[in-house]
Each structure stands twice: as C-alpha cells, then as structure tokens.
Design a protein that fits this description.
The complex is a heterodimer.
Chain A lengths: L3 E6 L8 H10 L20 E9 L2 E9 L18 E3 L5 E3 L8 H5 L7 E3 L4 E3 L5 H5 L6 H5 L5 E5 L6 H8 L18 E3 L6 E7 L11 E6 L6 E4 L5 E4 L6 E8 L6 E7 L3 E8 L3
Parallel strand pairs in A: 1-9, 10-16
Antiparallel strand pairs in A: 1-8, 2-3, 4-5, 6-7, 10-13, 11-12, 11-14, 14-15
Chain B lengths: L1 E8 L2 E8 L2 E7 L12 E3 L2 E3 L14 H5 L9 E3 L18 E3 L2 H19 L4 E5 L14 H8 L5 E2 L6 H11 L13 H8 L2 E5 L3 H4 L9 H10 L2 E5 L5 H6 L2 E3 L6 H15 L4 H7 E2 L1 H8 L11 H8 L3 H13 L2 E4 L15 H14 L54 E2 L3 H7 L2 E4 L14 E4 L9 E5 L11 H7 L6 E6 L11 E4 L8 E4 L17 E6 L12 H11 L3 H5 L4 H11 L8 H7 L1 E4 L17 H4 L29 E2 L3 H6 L29 E4 L25 E4 L2 E8 L1 H6 L7 E5 L4 E8 L7 E3 L46 E6 L3
Parallel strand pairs in B: 8-18, 9-15, 10-11, 10-14, 11-12, 13-24, 18-19, 19-20, 25-30, 27-29
Antiparallel strand pairs in B: 1-2, 2-3, 4-5, 6-7, 6-20, 16-17, 21-22, 22-23, 25-31, 26-27, 27-30, 28-29, 28-31
The chains are: A mainly beta, B alpha/beta.
C-alpha cells in the first residue's frame, strides 16, 4: 500500500498562488462524499500561503511557505473523543468525515498548524484531503501539485524510493524537514528551504568609495560556539549569510588585505541588514 | 453525468468539467503525457527539459468563478433617463441607474440609432473601440466580429497606442529597426542561448513571473528556476523589489522612477573610459558611435560627462554600485532583460522613455548584441518550436473575419471613411471637437509611419456622434483617465452603447448595455499565446504549441449572447445581415479558419473537433529534420541573412537580408531615421539624450507632490480582466485587502514615508494630486525605496464615491486617474503613466 505525501521546495516557490486557486476550484461548491464536502466560495480556504517579507533597506527577501493539512502520522486531529469522524487511511491521507464530523467545532481547533477550517454555514470542520477523490478515481496527482509551475510541489508515494516525491526529497540529501517538528505530529508533508533569518550587508573601502569592495572576507561567528561561516563579498561588495537560527548572537568580522579588520556584534531576532561596514586602510 | 470540454484563455488551454449544465472544475488542459515530445537543451553537462504538461496562468483557475460572477451583465439594460425619442440626458451618464429591457427593444434602439446617425452625419460619425484580451479565439476575438461590423458601417477607427512598450516602439526602432516587431527584440532560441552562455542577467524594469510573457501562462517559470539553480547571477533594476527578484533571490538595485536613462548612460561612460567595449563590433556593425561617445563623455551639447557620480544623484543608486555593475557586465556574458517580450518594462512608459529603450540597445551593441549569451531577452520567450505549421492568429489579417482570405468580402478593407482617432486623445477629440496627433498607432509598416500627421475631423467627414464601446475599462489602464468620464457626459455623444461581459469601470456610462458571453459559452478555436501579426511565433513563450478547439461548455449566463451573434442581429435589423455574416454561423467561420490552416492538411476538422486539441512539439534529435536553433540576431553578428522565423522582416529574401531594418542596416548610435524625419527634435534627438522628466523627482509638481507613483502591469489580473469579476482573487494577500466589506486595491509605501505620514499597514490611504484622488489599502514595506509608491495600474474597478463626478475620489483603485495625459515627448505620442507625482495621506471618512 502506498503512503501518499507531498514535498514542497520553498526555494522554488514563486508565490504565484496557482495552487491556492486550483484548490478553491476543486472544492468550492463541489461535494466529494465521503472524502470531502464542498468548501464555501468566499473562505476559509484549505491551503494558505504564508508570505514572509524579511530584511530591511535594500536587502530584502520574500519567501512563501505553502501550508495545508500535513497529513500527520501522529495526527493531533485524530482523537478518541472525535470517534471515527477523523481518520487516517491506509494510504496515509487524513480524512475528516463530512457526515460524522458535522457540528463538532473542536476538530477545527485541534490542529496546531491551523490547517483545519470551520465552515460556519455547513457547521463542519474541513481541510485538505490531498485530493483523495482524484486518487480514488485513479489519478496520481493533486490539483495544487498539477499546476505548480516550477515543480516546487511534488506528489507521490513516500515509501517508494523511485516515486517522484521520494526522488525530489533524496536529491536534497537529508535537508527536507517537517514544519514545526516541535508539535510532534510527524507530518507527511515535507519542506525544503523553510525561510530562516539572514544577515546581509556591504563592505566598503574608505579610500576607494568609487567602486565596490569585491572579494573581501566576511566571517560570521556564533557566540554559542557553533561552527563559523565564511563568505566573500560579491562584485557589488555585498555579502549575506542565510539560514541562521533565530534569536542567536553573533560577531561579524570583515577583512580585506591592506585594511584594518572590523568586527561587529549582531543579534539575529529576524533577518538583518547590517548596512555598510567601512574598512580603513592600514 | 460529467462532461469534459476543451477551451483556451489568454493564460492557457484548459479542460472544463461540466455537470448538469454547470461548470464544476477548470484544470490545465488534460493531455496524456505521451503526446508531448519534450525538447532537451544541454548546457554544461546538464539536460533541461520541460514537463509533459501545460502550465497555465494562476488567474485562469478562476474561470468558473469569473463566469458566474455577480458582476456579469445578464440582460440588456437601458439608462433610466435616456429616451432616444426625447430627453437623452447625456450629462447624467455615470449617475443614472439602469432598467432591464428586452433584447428586441435593445436591438431596435441600437440599430435605429446607428441608422439615424449614419443618415444624418455619415458613417464617420460612428466610432468605437475594444478592450484588450478579455477573451480568446479567432472567430470571437475583438479583431474579428467587432471590426467586421464597424468597418461595414464605415466607422472612424481608433488607433491603439502601443501601451505596454511605448519606448521600444517609438525609440528602439530608430536604433535597431524591427519596426515590423513594433520595436521588440527577436527572442528566437534565446532560452538555449541563455542556458548555455549567459553568465549574468540584468533584469531591468522586468518582472517576468508577474507578466508571464503576456499570454504564455507559467510556461517559462521553470526556465528561471533552472537559471537560478544553475547559478546565473541576476541583478534587478526596478523601483520595486518585484516578484521575480524575490523568486530568483537576485540582487536589487532600487532605482528612482524615470531615471533609468541616466543609469544606462553612466554604464556606457564606464565602458568608454575603461575601454571595455566591443570595438570590432562597433566598427563593423554600428554607425554614429563617435557622436554618441562625445555626448556621453560630455564633449558636446550639455557639456557634462555622464559619470556614475552624476547618475547617483539622478538614480539614487550609489556611484560605486553603478561602476562595479558596469565592470561586471563587461567582464561577463550578460543578457539584459527588459520586459515580457524582451522589450516593454515600466521604464519605457515614462517621460522620454524612448531614450531608455534606445540606450538599452546601444549598451548591448557595445557588448556585442547577438553574440552568445549577449542579448536582450525577457526570459519568457525563446523555446525551441516547430514554427513551420501556420495556424491563424488574431492579430494577422488571415485571422480576422473582416480581412481573412476565408471571407468573401473583406469588409475591413472597404471602409470609405478616411479619418482616424487615437485612443489616448479620444476623450480630448470628443470634448474639444478636434484633434491633431502624430503616427498611426502601431507603426509596423515603416519607420516613417511614426511621423504621419493626423487631423480630426477631416474635411467632408463628421465629428463623432455615436460611440460603440466593447469590453474592458480604460479607467484603470490609460492615462489621466478622469477625462473619459468627462467624455462620456459630453452632449456631442448622442448615443453610447456598450457591449461587455462584466460590469467594468466604464459600464456605468452607456445609454444601452448589451450582455456578451465568454468564450466558455460559445464555440471557437485558437492557438495558445499566438497573436501573429507583429509578434510572429509568440508560441515560443510556450514549451509546446497547443492548438485548441474552443468548445461551448455551458449555455450563456442570463440572456448574454456571443459577440458575433449580437452583431449579426444588429446587422439584420439594419438590413445588412447577409452582408455581415455571408450566411455563416459562428461555427461555419471556425471551420473556414481551420481549413485555411496548415494543420488541416494532416488533421481533419471533424477529428480536430472530436479530440479538442492538437500538440505540436519541437522536432527532436531523432526526427528526419531535427530542430536547428537560430538565435535572435546571431545572423546579424555573423553577417548572414536573417535565418530566424521572423516572417515579417521586409529585407528577408532581398540582397539586404543580412542587415537590420534601420536606414543604414546597422545599429545606429546616431539615428539616421531621426536625422531625416525629425532633425530638430530636442526631445528625441539623433543621439539619445538625458532629458529630466517633465514630472518626476524634483521636477514638475514635485514640491507639492513629493512621492513618485509607479503603476506597472498587475500580478493577479490580465490588464483589467479577472480582477473584480473573480472574487476568489480577493483572498490573495496583496491582490486586494478586504476591510469594512470592501476589497481595497494595494498601495506600497516605504516605512520612512509611512512613518512621516502616520500610516501603518492596512490603513486606508488617499493617493492624490491635482488630477485625481484614489483610495487604497497601505502596505508598508521595504520592497519600495523612500519616495516611491507602488500600485498596480490595472484595476477593473472604478468606483467614484460620487458617481458621475469626474473629480470624485475613487475607491476602486483606479490609480491611472492620477497620471498625466501628456505625451511622452513632442513627437512621441506614447503614454507615460510612470511619470506621476503624488502625495498620500491617511483617509478620514
């Protein structure tokens, strides 16, 4: 029996919302009993895109994290008190039974990912069903995956090493991860490149301000003893360190031959543009 | 019982699932993967190949939401205080409400008004114009039934301005020719060239993830993913940290709007002083370099050198960044990417935007334009394709029922009226009773066509009395658009009829409203993304050519009818039914067009209809005639005749086939066509010049309105289409934001500018200047620099708080009302919506 899942490469997501709109098209007004009842036309949707704009000044980034039901292996929405209103199929898909779940708002509140929505009109908790109605009809894709322009989203059998989704995950050699692992839910949906803080800045040589300081060495040392990272400035004198832990303290060392090195202390609560680091000649 | 139909939109082909007469789902067209034969491009040991599927535009997923929109015009309507036999009350257009009438009454009024106006004033008293691209198809497209009908009445045509690529049309053409492409650079096979050879791409005023190569949906998104993952460096020059900048994680150089020419000149200055330009290319392939060099170095004219330090003051980009960018550019094989089709881009829609487009061509010439990895490439076109099979497209005569070989009478060529109007000045012409304008809109016939002088009205012809409007809303797309309100209320317009599918921004003005249907509610046919005409082979923006039988999926909503049926009915009332239709139903035309195509030679009409689509893949390496890449302009570099499929190049097949379309056949640093046709023009001089904008940073009304508005093409709409009519889009963060029951358009503002004005994200703000006042929801973000307000210039809504008052504050987001109607320059009749000074304040009700 396959175990269906979806992988999402955040670095490939362009924030086009095609998945969001395809999901609405599939479910708005359409009942697919017993695996889903219709979604209301005007929200709440079952797939959301968390758009994060981070950084300051001219050093900004925008990242998109697509969040829908994570089809958890230890699904927090599957509780004895809900009876068989929520269940996990043999193929791994978590389903809210549209009949048995009727009237139970607690189901909607049970998901730590906020992936279950309360349909006020239908008095029903609802969520992504990984397009179970399509899979049951013999298709091997979901509406969101089908339309993803950059193949950032991939669907398939997580247990088959030759499936598209397994290959996509294997390609990144252990770098796929779960969203909020602290929830302990063991999600089936897996992410690569989840947005994390970055530090960016520019090195400038005090006596050569007419051109950029390319090739300067910049070192980032974590105060808490983690391995330091080294980079060199690009042709515009810019540098950046990506995928940093939030809330950590660092020192940043800028060096260039013939110039006095400069060190600054930074605390990364969110992405940070340290601005211009001006190095004086020795 | 579920049925699946095929259809085609301006954002891609679809499968439409219908149950009990209602559309239930719309998916990218479902074609078995084995029917695609994906091309393979090899670059640096890696093979790149597209998925065996079609990637449609995001908004197309809302087709059923849009079709069933609350905004649909369901019945013929008459303005309540319009009486064709008594008081017409034109001054109340935009204020009066509407009352439902029967089709019979509506057709009677429209036909008798056409009859009356024609008999009283002549056909020239009738004008009309269409929107852009709300439908797709050959039979039902605007250039088909509308033009056939209107020319049959001998109407006064209105020239469209090249609204999305003004600077390229009026500027770049005088530098490298390509007037037959309306100034757009050839994009053939630049994907392969880019993947194999480009080391850096400078995306200058370009957001391809947003504009999708115009009609190609998201086919090219994966190309940019490949480029990013391959490690090709990208630099974005834009006043907005745009969406492609975000997805490619490129370096952002925020530039002050309207200063792009200054940056380009400073880059040229660095190359000139460093000596890092292609001297052999300059010597062999160009003329006028010394004149240009003298200008850039400050030896002539304004007598100052266009240094990076000077450009820093104009652009806001530090001189060191300009210098280092220029040096890296010269060191690396660099593509410049300036808009959906290579050209375009908001910078070409500013005051003197011609000069920027010309400078881009000249910069590339300095680096060897056309050499491997050195080209002007939008990153949205240039896939390998089999272009040998001709299929009609909307912008070519053989794709239009009024001009096509399949029509017995080419009614569009038989119009006896000689006078013309110009879209940008149409309201002025009506309000002033006269107009003078230069050029013939899309000047694809010759460089000289741009200099033709026009007068309205022409002696012996009439002023306009009847206006036939078809689709769309110019409130959101043209410039200084409150003048359209004034025009509608002019008593000069004795009768106004509008035919549209939805209640757009202009639907509050006509005397009679006729409900048209979408192309999901009628039969048609077409090829994905193919427009033909001045953009030959636009299918190279797709990974495969897809030809679709557009099948009627459901009955038209309400009493709406197809455009062809509406015009046929009016023609019948006028006694011109047979002349208009030639006895053809809509589907007869479809079959005629199909049978005129090359595809009909191998696939019968019946089989095509049955299957619903046909895929043409690029010939693979093992086919009898494998695909041979012909990159744009490589032939020019190598001194060979043009070998690309650029069908309209008039020099092809002549002894000048190896030359460009300029007077000298070379790239002209000093333009010989301008020297001949407008030698004394100081606003588009022979050598491109830096001319400060008449409205912009520290220019014009800046003291009063110190923020610069930029209003580019939208992300979650196609022009004004989809926005508003598809309510699902309102749930997309930053398309619109719903507050107090109203879906507000977005305006982006820098945190410093917001703090100064006490504004936070989600506040309703008023954007204003002397021309207009528009309400938006504020988004406070570093994605714009200090001094810039970004808002998309294509709302479908125009919602004046005081209906019918042209001065009223608008809450629909029609930011183009704020823009100046001034032409780009003295002899350049282009619009400049991105030269617009405004102020912004918190809106207090």
């Amino acid at each position: 029996m396959p175990r269906y899942g979806i992988s999402i490469d955040v670095t490939r997501c362009t924030g086009c919302y095609a998945c969001f709109l395809a999901c609405k098209d599939e479910f708005v007004g359409n009942d697919y009993l017993p695996v889903a009842a219709a979604q209301p036309s005007e929200g709440p949707a079952w797939l959301r895109i968390e758009e994060l704009t981070h950084g300051t000044g001219t050093k900004v980034k925008v990242d998109y994290t697509t969040v829908m039901c994570q089809h958890c292996q230890d699904a927090p929405c599957i509780k004895p008190e809900f009876g068989d209103a929520v269940y996990r199929r043999a193929d791994g898909i978590v389903i809210i039974d549209p009949v048995k779940a009727k009237g139970n708002k607690k189901i909607a509140e049970s998901c730590p990912y906020g992936a279950i929505q309360w349909n006020e009109t239908a008095q029903l908790a609802q969520k992504c069903n990984m397009c179970a109605q399509m899979i049951d009809a013999g298709e091997r894709t979901t509406r969101c995956v089908e339309t993803c322009p950059t193949q950032a989203m991939v669907f398939g059998d997580m247990d088959d090493p030759k499936s598209a989704v397994s290959l996509a995950i294997a390609e990144k050699a252990g770098k796929y991860e779960s969203l909020n692992p602290e929830f302990g839910a063991k999600p089936t949906v897996q992410y690569f490149g989840l947005p994390r803080p970055f530090i960016a800045g520019e090195v400038i040589l005090a006596d050569k301000q007419g051109e950029c300081a390319s090739g300067a060495k910049v070192t980032l040392n974590a105060k808490a003893g983690a391995k330091s990272a080294v980079t060199t400035t690009d042709f515009l004198g810019d540098f950046e360190f990506k995928n940093l832990a939030a809330g950590a303290e660092y020192t940043l060392l800028a060096e260039c031959e013939g110039y006095k090195a400069k060190q600054i202390a930074v605390r990364v609560d969110a992405s940070l543009n340290v601005g211009e680091i001006v190095l004086d000649p020795k | 019982m579920e049925q699946v139909f095929t259809n085609l939109t301006n954002g891609g082909p679809i499968s439409v699932y219908v149950k009990d007469g209602k559309i239930v789902r719309v998916r990218p067209i479902q074609i078995p993967s084995e029917e695609f034969k994906p091309w393979i491009i090899e670059a640096e040991g890696k093979k790149y190949s597209p998925p065996p599927a079609c990637r449609i535009s995001p908004v197309v997923h809302t087709e059923r939401n849009r079709l069933e929109s609350r905004d649909r015009i369901l019945h013929p309507m008459k303005r309540v205080d319009f009486d064709p036999k008594g008081e017409r009350n034109p001054q109340n257009r935009g204020k009066s409400g509407y009352v439902r009438i029967s089709w019979e009454e509506a057709l009677d009024i429209v036909s008798s008004e056409i009859d009356r106006v024609t008999k009283t004033y002549g056909g020239s008293a009738i004008t009309g114009l269409t929107s852009s691209h709300h439908n797709w198809g050959i039979v039902g497209y605007k250039a088909g039934p509308f033009h056939r009908f209107m020319h049959m009445l001998n109407f006064t045509p209105v020239y469209d301005n090249p609204d999305s690529w003004e600077g390229w049309h009026w500027g770049a053409t005088h530098t490298y020719g390509f007037h037959w492409r309306l100034g757009m650079p050839p994009q053939f096979d630049l994907l392969e060239d880019g993947l194999k050879n480009a080391e850096m791409i400078v995306l200058w005023s370009n957001d391809p993830d947003t504009t999708h190569g115009t009609y190609s949906g998201q086919e090219s998104s994966i190309w940019r993913t490949w480029l990013k993952e391959k490690g090709v460096k990208t630099v974005f020059i834009d006043p907005f940290y745009n969406y492609t900048n975000a997805s490619m994680d490129g370096t952002w150089l925020p530039i002050r709007p309207g200063s792009d020419t200054a940056l380009a000149m400073a880059i040229a200055h660095v190359w000139l002083t460093d000596g890092t330009y292609d001297k052999q290319y300059i010597a062999e392939k160009t003329v006028g370099f010394d004149e240009f060099k003298a200008y850039i170095l400050g030896e002539v004219d304004d007598k100052f050198a266009k240094t990076p330090e000077w450009a820093e003051k104009e652009t806001g980009i530090p001189a060191r960044k300009i210098r280092s960018l220029a040096r890296e550019w010269a060191r690396k094989r660099t593509m410049v990417s300036c808009g959906a089709r290579g050209g375009e881009g908001g910078a070409c829609r500013t005051a003197y935007g011609t000069e920027w487009a010309r400078m881009i061509v000249l910069l590339m010439a300095m680096q060897g334009l056309g050499k491997p990895g050195i080209n002007i490439w939008g990153t949205t076109m240039g896939a390998p394709a089999d272009s040998s099979i001709w299929f009609p497209a909307y912008a070519e005569p053989n794709g239009q029922m009024g001009r096509s070989q399949v029509a017995k009478e080419k009614l569009c060529n038989m119009n006896t009226t000689k006078q013309k109007l110009y879209r940008l000045t149409l309201p002025d012409a009506i309000l002033n009773g006269k107009d003078q304008f230069i050029g013939q809109g899309f000047c694809g016939q010759s460089l000289e066509q741009q200099f033709i002088q026009n007068t309205y009205p022409l002696p012996g012809e009439s002023k306009i009395k009847l206006f036939y409007r078809y689709g769309g809303s110019f409130m959101g797309t043209m410039t200084d658009t409150s003048k359209w309100v004034k025009m509608y209320q002019s008593p000069e317009l004795e009768f106004v009829v509008m035919q549209d599918i939805w209640y757009g921004g202009e639907a509050a003005f006509p005397d009679i409203l006729l409900p048209a249907c979408t192309n999901l509610e009628r039969n048609d046919l077409g090829e994905w993304a193919a427009c033909g005409g001045y953009t030959t082979n636009a299918h190279i923006g797709n990974n495969y050519r897809i030809i679709v039988r557009e099948q009627k999926c459901v009955e038209p909503q309400g009493e709406s009818k197809s455009d062809y049926e509406i015009f046929s009915l009016i023609a019948e009332k006028l006694g011109l039914g047979e002349k208009y239709t030639e006895g053809n139903t809509e589907d007869d035309w479809a079959k005629l067009f199909y049978n005129s195509s090359d595809l009909a030679k191998t696939l019968s009409w019946e089989d095509f209809c049955k299957k619903g689509y046909h895929v043409i893949s690029s010939p693979g390496p093992d086919s009898p005639e494998p695909y041979k890449a012909t990159p744009g302009l490589r032939w020019f570099v190598e001194g060979r005749p043009d070998d690309t499929p650029d069908a309209n190049n008039p020099r092809k097949g002549t002894d000048r086939a190896h030359e460009l379309g300029t007077y000298t056949g070379k790239i002209e640093f000093a333009s010989e066509s301008l020297r001949k046709n407008a030698p004394d023009d100081t606003e588009r001089p022979v050598v491109p010049h830096w001319i400060p904008s008449w409205e912009g940073y520290k220019q014009g009304n800046y003291d009063k309105y110190p923020l610069q508005g930029v209003f580019p093409h939208p992300r979650f709409s196609f022009h004004t289409h989809y926005d508003k009519h598809a309510s699902w889009l309102n749930e997309i963060a930053l398309h619109r934001v719903t507050k107090d029951g109203h879906a507000w358009w977005i305006a982006r503002i820098h945190p410093d500018d917001a703090a100064k004005r006490g504004i936070k994200t989600g506040d309703i703000v008023e954007l204003y200047n002397d021309r207009a006042s528009v309400l938006c929801s504020a988004e406070v973000t570093y994605r714009v620099p200090v001094g810039v307000i970004h808002s998309y210039g294509c709302t479908a809504r125009y919602e004046p708080i005081e209906p019918g008052n042209f001065k009223s504050t608008d809450k629909g987001g029609a930011v183009n009302m704020l823009t100046s109607g001034r032409m780009m320059s003295k002899n350049v009749p282009g619009m400049s919506p991105n030269s617009c000074n405004i102020e912004l304040r918190k809106w207090e009700k």
